[in-house]
Structure formats: C-alpha cells, structure tokens
Amino acid sequence: MIAWTIYLTFAGALAALLAPGVLARWVAIVTTTTGFAISLLALVDAVDVGLFQTITRHEWVLTLGMEYHLAADGISLTLCLVTGLTALCAVLFSWGVDRRPNEFFFWLLLVVGGSYGVFLSADLFLFFVFYELVIVPKYFLIAIWGSTNKEYGAMKLTLYSFLGGALVMIGIIAIYVTAGKESVASALDLQQLAQFPIAPSVQAWIFPILFLGFATLAGVWPLHTWAPTGHVAAPTAGSMLLAGIVMKLGAYGALRIAMNLLPQGFEMWRNWIVVLAVIGIVYAAAVALRQRDLKFVIGYSSVSHMGFVLLGLASATALGASGAVLQMFSHGVIGALLFAIAGMVYRRTHTRDLDALSAAGLARALPFAAFAFVIASAASMGIPGFSGFAAEITILIGTWKNYPLAVWITGAGMVLVASFTLRALKTAFFGDQTPAPAIAEALPPITTPEKIGASLLMFSTLAIGICPKFLLDRIAPAVEAMSFLKP
Fold it and tell me: Helix 367-381 to helix 404-429 angle, to the nearest 10 degrees?
C-alpha cells in the first residue's frame, strides 16, 4: 500500500500541470492528503517493522542487475509519514499562489514523489534516481516563486546538491563494482549488501565519500551554507519542504546507505562525525543569535537541529540512532511550522526584519500566528511535552555512553538555541504591544487553510511529545537491525 504514495504523487503532479489553473490546488490537496493518509495507515498497521521488507520487485536493467525494488521498515515508514504531513501542509500554505499555479504544484509534487521514492528504495541505483529527481524541482520552486535573492539562493542550493549527488554517485559505483565482483545479483540490493563483507580497507575510503555527499544535503557543518540562503530565498512551501523533507533525505542516506552498508568504515570515521555534529550544533546556534532576518534565524536553527541528528547517528548506540530518526521526524514538523509562520508574517507585513516586526505589535495584530510561534518555539527549544524534547533527550542519553564530553558541549548549544528562539519570539511578536490602529487593521487575517496547516503541525509535535512511544516502537527495531550496531 505504501508504494502508492509514489505513484499517486507523480500522477497528481501530471494532473496538476494539465488541470485548469483554479483546479491545480485541488489536485494537489487531494494528492497530498491521500499520500499522508496512506503513510499514516501504513505506519499504524505495520508488522515486523524491524525488517526491511520488500513491497514490490521487478526487473529493470538486466545487464547491470538493476531492479525496481521497493521495501519498507519502521524508519522509512516514519519518514514517509513526515513527508506526507509536510507536503499536505505546504499545499495548504500555498493555497493563495496565483502565479503559474499549475507549474508550482507540479514542481512541488515532484519533490514529494521523489522523496517518497528515496525512503522506499531498496535498489542502490533506484535510490540514486529518486535522490537526484528532487534536485531540479527545488531549483524551479525557488528561482520562479522565491523572494530575496531567489536566483542566487536557487543556484547555490542546486550546485551544492549536485556536488553532494556526485559524491554519492561515486560511492554507489564503488560499492557496485566491489560487490559485483562476487555477485551482480546482490551488487545493488540494499537487503543483501547489508550482509556483504566489503574489505575494511575499501570501506575506509568509500565511507567518507558517501557520507560527505549525504551530509551536504543534510546541511551538516561545514557543508551547510546553502541551507540558510536557500531557506531565505525559497517561497513558504519551498522552505517547508527543504526543512521538513529534503534535509532528511541526506540524513536518511547517511544511515541507510553509508552507515548500514559500510559499518567498519563508519567505525573508523565516527569520532570525526561527532566532532562535526557538536561544532554544527554550537556554531549554527551562535550564528542564529546574531541574525536580524526571521528566516535566517530559522535557517540556522535548522542546521543546529540537524546537528542533533548527526550526533545521534554517530553515537553508535541503538538509543542514540533511534533518537536521531525521531529527531528527523520532529525537526521536519517543527521546521515546517516555523517557516510556515514566517511565511504568514512576511505575506502580510512584507518584511522579515526583526526590528521592523517588533514595531508592528504582531501578537495583537496576528494572535493566531503569535500562538503558533509560541508552540513552535517551545518545541524547538526542547521543552518537555513536545517532540523536540523527546528526540533530543533520547539522543543525549544514547550519546552519553560513548561520548559524554560531546553531551556536555552540546548543552551549551542548547542554551544558545533557547537564547535565539526566545529573542526571535519576543522581538517579532511581543515587541510593541500597542501597535498603531492602521497597522493592525491593514494586516489581512490568517486564512482558513493556513490555520488548518499550522494546527496539523502543532498537533503533531504535541502528540509525539506526549507519546513518543508510538514512533519509537516502530523506529527502534529497524535501527537495531542495522549492521553498524552489530559487533
């Protein structure tokens, strides 16, 4: 059933392109709602979530051993769920798009369909096809419908993505050639490759190539510079997709491909990965504290929170890695919500400058946006009761076993996260509490689609924060089955 998320989303993209302009948004909302519903049902009904189980398998390119092979476990199903949720909310926040709506929703749905494909691929080359498919639609979404320095932001994001993709391709070819010497049939099968004993000396150089390729898209320091620029340039839906889905593609690839297929290579390099993670958490939070543009603040916040994902993966413990996957879901929801609110504000005030927003008295002029930002801020800071806390505490406990010093340093980063989040909240929404009547009256009210989208995201971070067991029970068995955790 979960495979239908791919087929329906690509079909929806084509239908949105061909439909009369006014109907394109309805095609998109039906498509993304269906994808979200299928993802949720698949996760709820899943059995044996620790096994990467084949969904469908067909011969594709026989001479190379390539197959159209889809599979799923608790990790991929969890990330399909956040993909469906983010996509649905991105469409809701794009309801007012009236400039070339057919093309807009076409490119948006291509990003979503490609992302579903990445999370469900069980063939190395098929994974790469879907992975690269996401790049071009991102460029057009930003370059055509973006705002500040949109062409520069779109090109920078695209060049970084292609650079990372080139490294991933080199790593995949290296694995294919190495494994193919033994058996072409297993040279591309992720299920069989996880059991294939690649020589440690070979893993030692393939792993860093693959990891750096995936880390680029994940926004890992120091390969992160595309992320704040891309987020600022992107339209609201584009920023939501980047934070909620696209950055997770890189993290998922690092876990499913680099770490799982090259466990000894991971063991050789994981200390350095921890260093990158800790620096990224602290550095990005410190830079966010100095920003005056609301979207730049959120963009650097995303880089900092993705550092937690990297830290959990590098902890080399089942608990830490499970927390990392939970953080992928959590940050996907929280990041999408933060960028959605920034879009709400910008659409009405035409500014993201914190000082200018402070003079507008947004808490009174836009009370729903202020309330949503309070919820998003609490979740981002890791306040108990929200998904951010559940994910980060799981990562930190899992990391303590092997890297207690990293946990101590990360604590400083968490203080900085709280500092820039509270500053942005106070300045943007609770600056001048007595705005001029002309300002308050001039701001259009929050629309119903925006309220529905924000409410879905707020509910999700609260629900998982209160009951993280729902996701962890599905994530943990799949993580424990990974080869990099086996002695």
Answer: 170
